[in-house]
Amino acid sequence: MPEISRFMPPETGRAWPPFALSVRHGATLYVSGIGPMGPDGVPKGDFAAQFAIVIGHLKRALEEGGSNMRSVLKANVLLTRAGDVAEMNRLYAAAFPADALPARTTCVVAALPVPDFLLEIECIAAVY
C-alpha cells in the first residue's frame, strides 16, 4: 500500500482550520483549497493581487509535496464574483505552462470562509 504523507501548516504560522494543506498518496498529491492570505493579510478587492498570492502558495505547496505546476492534473477554482472570470482566465493562462494546462472546473460561489477572499484554488497533481 502506498505511503500517505500529510503536509501541515507551520506551527509558528497563523491559526488554521483543521485540515492538511496537502496530502500525498503514492504518486498523487491532493492540495487543499488555497486562499489569498498574504503576509499583510488579504488585499481587499484586488483580484490580480489575490490571484498572485494564491499561485505563489500553490507553487510552494506543490514543491513541498514533490510536484510542480506542469504536473497539475485537475484544478478547481472558486470565485466569489462572476465579473472576475475573464481576468482569472488571463492570469491562469499565464500561471500554467501552455503545453501543460490541467483539467479545470471554475465555479462562482456565494461566499468563501474568509469574507475578503475573492478566490480559492485546489488541485490534484502527479508526483514524479
Can you put this structure into words, describing what you see?
With 128 residues, the protein is an alpha+beta fold. The protein is built from two helices and six strands; from the N terminus they run βββαβαββ. Helix 1 runs parallel beside helix 2 (85-95). The chain has a single domain, classed as 2-Layer Sandwich (60s Ribosomal Protein L30, Chain: A), CATH 3.30.1330. The mean pLDDT is 93. Its EC number is 3.5.-.-.
Order of helices and strands: EEEHEHEE
Q: What portion of the residues fall into strands of 2 or more residues?
A: 25-35%
The CATH architecture would be 2-Layer Sandwich
| Strand elements, count | 6
How much helix, percentage-wise, in residues? 10-25%
Q: How many structural domains can be distinguished in the coordinates?
A: 1
Choose one word for the global shape: globular
Average predicted local confidence, pLDDT: 93
Which stretches of 5+ consecutive residues score pLDDT under 50?
none
Give the neighbour order of strands across the main sheet. 1-2-3-6-4-5
Q: What do we call the CATH topology?
A: 60s Ribosomal Protein L30, Chain: A
* Rg value: 14 Å
Put simply, the count of helices is 2
Distance between the termini: 17 Å
User: What's the main sheet like?
Assistant: 6 strands, mixed
Which homologous superfamily in CATH is the superfamily?
RutC-like
Enzyme class: hydrolase
Protein name: RidA family protein
InterPro entries: YjgF/YER057c/UK114
Keywords: Hydrolase
